[in-house]
Amino acid sequence: MPLLIRNGEIVTADSRCRADIYIENETVTRIGQDLDAPPGTEVIDAAGKYVFPGFIDPHVHIYLPFMATFAKDTHETASIAALVGGTTTYIEMCCPSRLDDALAGYHLWKAKAEGNSACDYTFHMAVSKYADETESQLREIVRDGMSSFKIFLAYKNFFGVDDYEMYRTLTLARQLGVIVTAHCENAELVAQLQADLLAAGKTGPQWHEPSRPESVEAEGTHHFATFLENTGASGYVVHLSCEGALKAALAAKERGVKIRIESVVPHFLLDKTQAEQAGVDGMKYVMSPPLRDKRNQHVLWNALNAGLVDTVGTDHCPFDLAQKRLGEKKFTEIPNGIPGIEERVNLLFTYGVKKGRLDLHRFVDAAGTRAAKLFGLFPRKGTIAPGSDADLVVYDPNYNGIVSVANQHVNNDYNGFEGMTIEGRPSVVTVRGKVQVLDGKFVGEKGRGRLLKREPCP
Ligand code: URP
Ligand code: ZN
Ligand code: ZN
After folding, report:
1. Whole-angstrom Cα distance, residue 344 to residue 183?
2. Which of 158, 320, 349, 422 has its CA 20 to 30 A from that of 175?
3. Is the CB of 337 under 6 A from ligand 1?
4. Helix (H) or strand (E) holding 372
5. Best substitution site from 288, 314, 319, 324 to test ligand 1's pocket, by max atoms within 8 Å of Cβ?
């Protein structure tokens, strides 16, 4: 059925106007004043609301075997949570470990998602080793439409690559025109610092941050950038958390290295004192890179508003309290990660746009458009224009609410942002022209999501 969204204020990364949007066959076909609604058209009145392009979360974990357990969400729960929060596309990290075969891992992740996601999705393909068969497998995966890789400099012996493997991955990526996303922490330093802290009897969650301090992330970022510089590959630093790492990335950019920067919502709003709480309350906030000293937050907000931090994702990775307690005796065994897919857009709008830290267009850009451009989804996703997929968020900037585990859709028993107020939320969310969310409730079709194939974009 065609859909007409009337009277909304359409805001994209670079434009703003009050107009109607007409949607047929999953696609925006017309934007204009006082558009007709032919018989049979579903009409939504968006007066007093913004209409944003559906947001894109460029970094999530859904299926994830990790740290002796599995992340909690299914593609159904995570995608419904994403949609309720205004995210209409996510990019999941496809993460086979060093013990697994890359191609088999890719087929496994695809099978887990297929038919189970309520919104569209695609994958960054992790390269966790560079064995004899790796190159031909990666070529096949890129031919299948996954035009971005992921490497981990951290997580020694599990996901982490060594310098030889990083070099080979970046060289291949350069040939294929594929961007490489990277978790940048020096794995050896982390391993040694962890061992020293545990040997000194420092076992609680408050020692997680000291085991991977800012300098370790800054070194990892500089290290990755140096490899980009010497291979000519394009890179993207994921979940950057602190000023030192930001300086390392920006210094590289200044000397011509092709490097982009993602940060994630927890680093703008939470700080290391959360993980210093006793027991499981601290464990809830163990993630890598760790939550940092609060002084980093204004640095990140300023860099985000200036466009130096390109995107804001979540690194959504839920573990419940029982799973977090796996690390009761040793902080090194607390599963790393925190959820956020549901809250990302509302928190950025509330604590960024409403607080005057983030320009409205930059918000749209950072939460969707720029990821679409970097990862080969634009202009199909990330904007509102004739020909684009009709992924739309009718957003109520006057809504007031409180984040709580009691009403979340993520499959977890706590919410890391519990009690925070939000001033704005999606009223209507569409995926390719079908209404999937109405006023905070999922009302749509659970398996609607499609795997998005992407061309390399050198
Ligand atoms: O703590 C985190 N970030 N967990 C998920 C895995 C990763 O490093 O992205
Ligand atoms: Zn990571
Ligand atoms: Zn991650």
Report:
1. 20
2. 158
3. yes
4. helix 370-374
5. 288
Looking at residue 343, its pLDDT comes to 98
pLDDT tens digit string along 313-322? 999 999 999 9
**351 within 8 A of 431, measured Cβ to Cβ:** no
Distance 292 CA to ligand 3 centre (A): 17
Question: d(Cα 311, Cα 58) in Å, to the nearest integer?
Answer: 8
Closest CA to 194 of 10, 101, 332: 332
Q: What is the largest CA-CA distance in the chain?
A: 74
Answer whether residue 387 shows pLDDT above 80.
yes
* Residue 339 tokens, joined: 């959820």
Half-sphere exposure of 415 (CA within 13 A, CB side): 19
Q: How far apart are CA 367 and CA 262, in angstroms?
A: 10
Instruction: Give percent of the chain above pLDDT 70.
Output: 100
**By C-alpha distance, which of 19, 28, 46, 88 is closest to 433?**
28
Rounded average pLDDT over 61-70:
98
59 alpha carbon – ligand 3 mean position (Å) = 6
- Whether 183 is in the pocket of ligand 1, judged by its Cβ within 6 Å, is yes
| Radius of gyration of the chain measured on its C-alpha atoms | 21
Nearest CA, atom 3, ligand 1: 288
- pLDDT, one tens digit per residue, over 139-188 is 999 999 999 999 999 999 999 999 999 999 999 999 999 999 999 999 99
The answer for residues whose C-beta is within 8 angstroms of residue 98's C-beta and 6 or more apart is 128, 129, 157, 158, 159, 160
Q: For residue 457, what pLDDT is reported?
A: 81
- Write out the H or E segment, with its range, that includes residue 52: strand 50-53
Residue 132 CA to ligand 1 center (angstroms) comes to: 27
